[in-house]
Each structure stands twice: as C-alpha cells, then as structure tokens.
TrEMBL record:
Highest taxon above the source species: Bacteria
Family indicated by similarity: Belongs to the UPF0047 family.
Pfam families, alphabetized: YjbQ (PF01894)
Protein name listed in UniProt: Secondary thiamine-phosphate synthase enzyme
Annotated source species: Hungatella hathewayi WAL-18680
Amino acid sequence: MYVRKTVDTAFGGYPSITEEVRGAVAESGVREGYCVVSLEGASTGLGITSFWDKRGLDDLMDEIGRNLPARVDYHSQTSPFDVSGNVKGAVVGRSAMLLVHEGKPVLGSSQGLVLLEFDGPRQRTCHIQVVEAGLELDSYQVKTCYMGMHDITDEVRRSVAKSRVRNGICHIAQLHSTAGLLLCSKEEGARRDIMEDIEQLVPTRADFKHRETAADAGGHVKTAITDSQLSLVIEDGELALGEGQAVVFAEYDGPRPRTFYVGVIHG
C-alpha cells in the first residue's frame, strides 16, 4: 500500500513523522513485511533517532550545521541555505527501510523517524510504501564496550542460513538511540579508524543541550548521522558481501548489553 503525506516545516525544524508511518502500516493491514519511507526535497534529511528530548534534536541540527556550514562560494547558483541543505541531505540520507512485524514497524521504544529541514519553511512530501512479504525474524545480543566496533557478520549469516532463503533481502535493525550499524571493512584497524573519525566529527564533550551524560548526548547525534538499519541482498543462499566487508555494530555510549534484529524477507 502506498501513502503520500505532506508535512509543514520550519527553517531548521525536525518534525517527527513516526505516527504517519505507523498509521500507514496499520491502515495497510500488513502483518509481516517491510516499509520504505522517502522524502522529496533536496534540502531535507531523514533521521532515525531519539525523539524524547527536543534538546537532543537541537544538538543534531547544530552538529550537522557545524560540520557542513552554509557558504557563499558554492558552484550552484541557488541560495546558500538551499545548496547547504542539499549537501546535508545527501550526507544524512532521505530514505529508510523498516521491517514490519506483527502489524507494526520495528522501531525501538526511544526511536522515531524525524524529517530534518535544512532550508524551509516548506511543505514537504513524504512517500510511504508498505509491502507484505514473508519474514523470518531473529534477535541477537551483543555485549559492547565504550565506542566499540563489533563484527556481527556471523550472526547475520546464521539467520540467512537458517531461513533457507535462496534469493531475497536481509535487513538488520538495531533499536537503540546511541548505537549504529555500519557496512565497512572487516579489518580491525580500519574499524578503529572509522570510529575515531566519527568521534572527530561529533566530539564527546560537555556543551551539548541534551542533559544526560556527554557520551549519551553525543551518541544520539552519531546514531542519527550513521545507520540504524541496513539492507543486504541474498543471492543463492548467501549474503552479497565483498570479501573484505563486514556488518558492524557500532557502540557510541556503553558498555551496554545491546539487541539487534535480523530479518530475512522472501516471497
């Protein structure tokens, strides 16, 4: 089922579209399958992050703006805020795929989908497609260390093998607001380099507006600018991964016991 929604935004705003997505899934009647959400508008972004504290979303917009400030020397001839928003949206992303299980999108209790407005005010268009499909869903636990990069490729492969699906989609979801999923090099040194550079982009520090610990506040931002959901192709019963690639659970707070889900979609 396809649903088109319009959302009124303010400059630098971050309206939640979680209820629109939940409503579309409920209206579709789909019990098992997946949901794809995408945004129109070059100067928008779509984040999966905690929505409980507005100050945390202020931190997110501040950090994106600090790393990608509007400039006057762009090649494009539109307004600096429009061009800057285009860059920010390209980095953050404008689409997401969620598993649908037992008639609900698979999201953590503190997770939501947020439309990030990098220009505005505008009326933005959100597209939601809910698809019914066979779904084999497994959950796994991982004990993380602070700022750790944990290879979970074996667990993902285990679910694919157990499903006996020859050709389909494997979708991995983590439901925490201070962790991420990365498709990256399996080499340990390369993973450490990635985490160190993420920390340089969003340094853990004391001046965040969100008033939990510094690691928690910074972790919310890191989660929003990396992935909480990953989709991979299954071909001939195997994950379509490069020889040097791995699926990695990134811990931005911790140490914590964490949960992630592996859904194999078929049919």
